Amino acid sequence: MTVVRMGYVAMSVHLQNCSPSQTMTHARFKKLFDRDAAIRKLERIARSNVTNCLRLLKHNIAHDIAFFRLSSKLIPLANHMDLKGWNYIKSIKKELNDIESFLAKYKMRIDFHPDHFVLLNSKKVDILNQSIITLKMHRNLLTGMGIHPKHRCVLHVGGAYDDRDKALEQFIYNWGFVPVDLQEMIMLENDDKSFTMNDTLYLCEKLAIPIVFDYHHHLAHNDNHNWQEHWDRVVSTWDNSPLPIKMHISSPRSSDDFRAHADYIDAKMFLKFLREINGSVSIIDCMIEAKKKDDALFRLMKQLKHEDDVEIIDGASFKIH
DNA sequence: CGTGGTCAAGCGGTA
DNA sequence: TACCGCTTGACCACG
Fold this sequence. Notes:
TIM Barrel, alpha/beta
């Protein structure tokens, strides 16, 4: 038996006017004559984003959802060079504290997935440094919300740079330049173009990083279709984590556009996967990555209800027998 | 008011 | 080497 808890990404299609990713582009920022006023506007946007996050968290609790990925665009231009020295955390401290109080009352697993410009295996010092700055921002937000930062940020391995093996070794080399308090935040995910499950496991085992297995990516890109062979290794990377194992679930948009995410999750494919891992872990958190966000989660729960080996626990979790 | 074009970023593929 | 598409939601200028 395995308990499955489902989560979704960043925003709800059911809540109106509740974006956590409002923004101001850098081009727009530069055009504004009064810099102080421009920064105040950035702060208003950031406050609105974090406030909307709290609304999302309340929505999640109302629907039994205990697993959620926060938007990485909460603070527009937070890590832009032109805004160096801007104390963005100070301007949203109250809103972050509100989230902290909420999370003290209602348990929820909160994650980030910094965007794919965070590259820890780049040979370019500027890109590595910019990545570190972005990770610091994520850490500031987590600690600001009272969330222990360990294993909260999912990253991809990075660029292949025409030589996957060298690129993997570069990751190991660069890892030494990443501050320990940022290292501990990180999980690594197999991607759909460059680094397979096997590549990613190599790094995860060597550097003691939990792996986030993405089943869809694996189907799109692998050097050994048989993921089951390595499943025990995946589970083992979570041995030293305070959090249960987690993975990513999405479905191909179409056979022609296989790598793109579909609106909803193919329940048959999901069940087939779960039946294979059933019993290998007592609990697993599954991040639903679908265009229709929380609606995809709700639809999936409805479909699973009819399965003989599925026992519904609440609105977003179930047991598979 | 609705909407096509624009914005950011770095990689990867093509010419 | 230079460009474009990818990806994402939001914003903006236009009609």
